[in-house]
Amino acid sequence: MSSRVLNATPPLRRRGLNRTRARRMWAYAFILPQLTLVVAFALYPIAMTHVYSFYDWPGFGPLDRHVGWQNYLRVVNDELFWNAFHKSFVFMAGTVALQLPTALLIAILLNSERLFGRNVYRTLFFIPVVTTSAVIGIVMRSIFATHNGLVNNGLLFVGLIDRPVRWLAQADTAMIALIVVASWKWLGIKMIMWLAGLQSLPVELYDAAKVDGANAWQTFRFITVPLLVPVGVVVLLFSIVDALTAFDLIFTMTEGGPGFATEFMELYIYRYAFTSFAGGLPQLGYASAAGVFFGLTVFLISLALSLLARRAATARR
Amino acid sequence: MTKKRPIAPILAALVTALLAGGALAQATQLTIWVRTPETFDLIASSIDRFHAANPDVRVRMVTFAADAYPGALQAAISGRDLPDVFQVHNSVPVPRLVSLGLIQPLSPYLDDAFLSRFDPATWWEGSTTVGGEVYAWPDRSFRRASLFMYVNRDVLREAGLDPDAVPVTWAEFVDQATRVTQAGRGRYYGLHLGFTSGWFNERVVLQLATTVSEDHGVPAEHLPGRMVNWRTGDPFDGDEIPAVLEFFRQLMDTDAVHPDFLNTGRSQATAQWAAGQAAFLFDGSWRLQELLRTEPDLDFGITMLPSKCGTPVLWGVEGGSQNAFAVASTSPHVEAATRLFRWLTDDYYPLLLLGAVDLTPIPALNADPTLFTSDAFRELVRLTEIGTIVLPSPVLENPAQLDTIVRLSGKAAQRPLGESMQGFLAEGRTDIADFLANYGDEQRRFLAEALAEARAAGAEVSFDDWVFPDWIRIQNHY
After folding, report:
1. Going by DSSP bridges, is the β-strand pair B57-63/B28-34 parallel, antiparallel, or unpaired?
2. Rounded to whole angstroms, how far apart are CA atoms B190 and A206?
3. Which residues of chain B does A63 touch, with a Cβ-Cβ cutoff of 8 Å?
4. Which residue from A171, A280, A282 is facing B74, i.e. has the nearest CB?
5. Same-domain check for residues B65 and B42
6. By residue range, what is the domain housing residue B23?
7. How many CB atoms lie under 10 A from the CB of residue B189?
8. What is the mean pLDDT of residues A236-244?
9. Where are the domains of chain A?
């Protein structure tokens, strides 16, 4: 009797439930390898970085010198940490300010159907993106050299300077050179993103604007720009992430110098974590604290940008 | 008609291959990590001959760029994945490796007859030896040279200067380097050096500072970032450093130094100097063998770095070895490893001299004139005898000081010297008194902390072991 009650579910529905369960199981099975990799190579290292940040630990030997918040206190009191923190954001602001409008301008030009050979131009702008950053850094070192560097020779030739500029040997000019090179390196990918955004805009709106007698500037100002805001937020987010993870380019082009003028956070953390910086043992615990502190800052920025993106998307709807 | 295939030779080849494969599989596999580029080729060729003489051991040599080595070593230690044999680095000195249980003693495998062939100071407590047990095999003599001035004689000739009248003092140097630059009109300059690596910048500045007066500290490879005045025990007596910066400012102001020196690596600077972009080059002794090998037609000389007051540029060392090889405690192949060390002692050490790389730790070899084939190397050895000084050792005074040394090796300045010097020069600043005062205070605090920690751990140590009132800077102490 009871078994009859238990089996009271109509066979069709039961089959449906089984199918749903099976589908879910398959879904989990497919997710599992990826999940394992995420746990092993993303979540576990992040969690361990937090753990290490509470230890005085060189990266080897027993993890037995718990120092509480001491590493964090050292971080916030370290002049070089704030120097790297500040420089990272100056670099980020510089590259974002240079890349976003330039990439948009180029995307608008390359979106024009009247432009001959636009695919060639698109490829040309994209080449630096797929070129290894380390190679670019080394080549740019020669291009920005004081003695016989291409940039100095060019400027001397056109008469803009009367003696070579020590581009990479002075704090301010080294930063400028890095911003220009990094912006050029990543310009192509931002241009493609803007281009994708431009090509997704509804043509009818432009037709309507034409009927209403809007000129090119008005069309750009009141149709293109507002509709591109969500894309812009994504481009902004990517630009920020690129700027904050530019280790290879900076390491090969300036090595953080001269002095600490272009030592950004990634380089700062690397030096403490993996080199016998200043003649002592590596300081993985301290480097972890600096990484966590900086990571939180970046996380907050990303969060703010995501909210901005959501708001922009809502406004568009 | 079908053609008969010769099956027998194929079968024989297969069997031979299988047997050879089996033999290889049975051979002891030894991995060795090497981080000194100037010895890569020499060690590799010696290992090839070792294979021929020892078919039961296969050695796999892994080489590292000098700057990448500390990170690799750290990862291997933390991952408990040290190779069988590895070159020690001063970021994790031998006593620390011993205290962590990461390396094993070699004494049971190296008899007295073998050890007695070496200069006795090779088996230095706190370096290759800990608690009387030998833990590391030296890759060269402890009496290592450091920085020298290389002279491109062709550039001097082209500038209308006598290539044999090289400058000795800073004043002479500034004068001559300026004249070279003026003659070069943007094609070549007086001086070049790659001033981008912190450790190298630090050596240049500290070694030049030893020539400002005769009363201050001496830098040493085994105490990086420090400049101990052994007479007082002050771990950072570097009052003369501003004078060195002033010297560089003078060179920069007169364009006597290559305009890219602050953003050029050492190898690139050497290549540019050899290509005729500068008359003088400041670089390590390790550059000599590379120049002899890669620039056979270059007419160059080697001499001491210029001196402020005419005294020799000094560089401190201790006995033992800063680049010694140790055997990981996890390695089951310590016998094979020591067999390799014995082989290298006989086969590779002579190559050090023949290749103009460095002196060996075996006096009998160093005294063999047939092993010196280059005049420049002979000169380098002569200059090394003048400028490289064996410093006093607190550990020899009191073995318990080993604990202090281990603890001191873990303490790093918050603002490192070498990178800071590069920054000061880039900014055109020589007002570094505050920086040096803070740096010196930090080093004194580190020594006091290391002594206190060692005492707390039960070691009977005192600051007095660091004071040698009769220390004379230009005398060897051992």
Report:
1. parallel
2. 65
3. none
4. A282
5. yes
6. 9-137+322-360
7. 28
8. 89
9. 70-316
Contact residues on chain B for A256, CB-CB shorter than 8 A: 419
Same domain, B347 and B412: no
| Shared domain check, B423 and B346 | no
B305-348 pLDDT, tens digit each: 999 998 999 999 999 998 999 999 999 999 999 999 999 999 99
Contact between A108 and A206 (Cβ < 8 Å): no
Instruction: Say whether A276 and B411 touch across the interface (CB within 8 A).
Output: no
**3-state SS class at B281:** strand
Edge-first strand order for the sheet with B325-327 is B57-63, B28-34, B85-87, B325-327, B136-137
Contact A256 B419 (CB under 8 A): yes
Nearest CA in chain B to A258: B423
Local confidence band at B27 (pLDDT 50, 70, 90 cut-offs)? confident
| Residue B233 is assigned to a structural domain of this protein | yes
Helices (H), B60-169: 69-78, 94-99, 112-115, 153-158
Return d(Cα B327, Cα B339) in angstroms, integer.
12
Determine the residue among A275, A283, A284, A288 to mutate to test chain B binding: the one whose Cβ has the most chain B Cβ atoms within 10 Å: A275
Tokens 């024989």 correspond to B12
Residue with tokens 């690397």: A270
On whether both B420 and B439 belong to a single domain, the answer is yes
- Whole-angstrom distance, CA of residue B105 vs CA of residue B119: 20
Q: What is the pLDDT of residue B5?
A: 55
Residue B386 falls within a domain, yes or no?
Answer: no
Q: Which tokens is B114 given?
A: 């073998």
Are residues B354 and B430 both part of a single domain?
no
Neighbours of A43 (CB within 10 A): 11
Q: Among candidates B246, B221, B240, which has minimal Cα distance to B428? A: B246
Within this chain, do residues B22 and B78 fall inside the same structural domain, yes or no? yes
Residues B53 and B112 in one domain: yes
| Yes or no, beta carbons of B412 and A276 under 8 Å apart | yes
Fold classification of A70-316 (topology level): MetI-like fold (1.10.3720)
Q: By C-alpha distance, which of A271, A291, A293, A292 is closest to A282?
A: A271
Residue type, A207: D
Q: How many Cβ pairs within 8 Å bridge chains A and B?
A: 134
Residue B68: inside a domain, yes or no? yes
ipTM of the prediction: 0.76
Distance CA B45, CA B35 (A): 16
Residue type, B99: S
CA angle B125, B130, B133 (to 5 degrees): 105
> Residue B304 belongs to a domain with what CATH number?
3.40.190.10
pLDDT of residue A57: 86
Return d(Cα A188, Cα A171) in angstroms, integer.
28
Is B417 within a domain?
yes
* pTM of the predicted model as reported, rounded to 2 decimal places: 0.83
